[in-house]
Amino acid sequence: MKPFNKQKGIRPELDRCGVHSSLFGRCTSGLPDRRTPSGPSLSSVRRGAAQKTKYVAAFILLLLATTAWRSVEPEITIYMIGDSTMADKPDAADINPERGWGQLFPLFFNQKVVVQNHAVNGRSTKSFIAEGRWDAVLEKLRSGDYVFIQFGHNDTKEADPSRYTNPYSGYRRNLEKFVRETRARGAFPVLLSSIVRRNFNEQGTLVDTHGAYPFVTRMVAMEMKVPFIDMQLKTEDFVNELGPDKSKAIYLWVEPGQYERFPEGKQDNTHLTLLGATEYARLAVEGIVELDLPLARYLK
């Protein structure tokens, strides 16, 4: 060990920073060498440090923003195809009280799921295909997506050849087409029977209006091993529990002057109010849980 330098009171190999130059090779304190005229000034060092801090902070903010964006990027898209009972309706609910249950469906999922509702008023399986609406869905469909399929109300229209389908042939064939082509894209089909009409007779009995169509939907689901949500059964039980009077609140029964869209009022036993659409969307979600679909883990 070298002796102390009596004049400076420090060992020669300890520099002005108080560290061994032999270990670090230079001063590591960040302070300028006041004994060296050519060294940087204290103010310039501080400016450089501040500038570096800004760059680091900007980089961290950019990284956080990128991470946040990625965390909310949807992982799955649910495509909905069907008729007016499922379709989105225009205007705010205080102007137009009508809502399709598919319009409320997204409220039950987290931000990793996006719902694209392609259901349209008045469409049957036949007219939905003929108008190119199914092809438009197929163009967007990706592996891992879902397609919720619900038709029947307008397939029964015998007086309209552009929409009518025989339940045992045309209707069945169209459902099979939806299933087959969905799977060909690596996506997952889900079949649903139609929601019930509020069709009580004078004795207070809820009478069916859909004939064989819900049964054929179930049959196709069984034969092709497709998840099936029996919305006719679920909604019929729901309406029966409410009864003839209370069930008016979930269907489009409105008084004259109550809503701008229906100044003369309306008594509609097929289409839904906001309350009805919400409850029927909840019943569809209930079906997802009962089937234990992978989609269930994205529910709120």
Write a short abstract of this structure.
This protein is α/β, with parallel strands linked by helices and 300 residues long.
Please describe the structure with a list of short key phrases separated by commas or semicolons:
300 residues, alpha/beta, Rossmann fold, 5-stranded parallel β-sheet, 3-stranded antiparallel β-sheet, 9 helices, 8 strands, 38% helix, disordered N terminus
What does this structure look like?
There is one protein chain. The protein is 38% helix and 13% strand. The protein has 300 residues and is of the alpha/beta class. The chain folds into 2 domains: 31 residues; 224 residues, 3-Layer(aba) Sandwich (Rossmann fold). The chain has a 5-stranded parallel β-sheet with strand order 3-1-4-5-6, sandwiched between helices. Helix 6 packs parallel to helix 7. It is globular and about 55 Å long.
Strand-helix topology:
Layout: H1 21-24, H2 42-71, E1 76-82, E2 98-99, H3 101-104, E3 113-117, H4 125-130, H5 133-140, E4 146-150, H6 170-184, E5 188-192, H7 213-224, E6 228-229, H8 231-246, E7 251-254, E8 266-273, H9 274-291
Parallel strand pairs: 1-3, 1-4, 4-5, 5-6
Antiparallel strand pairs: 2-8, 7-8
Strand content: 5-15%
- Please name the fourth-level CATH homologous superfamily of the largest domain: SGNH hydrolase
Categorize the overall geometry: globular
Mean pLDDT metric: 85
Helix and strand sequence: HHEEHEHHEHEHEHEEH
> How would you classify the helix and strand content by structural class?
alpha/beta
Number of helices: 9
| Cα-based radius of gyration, to the nearest Å | 34 Å
Widest beta sheet: strand line-up: 3-1-4-5-6
Low-confidence stretches are 1-37, 65-70
Provide the helix percentage: 25-40%
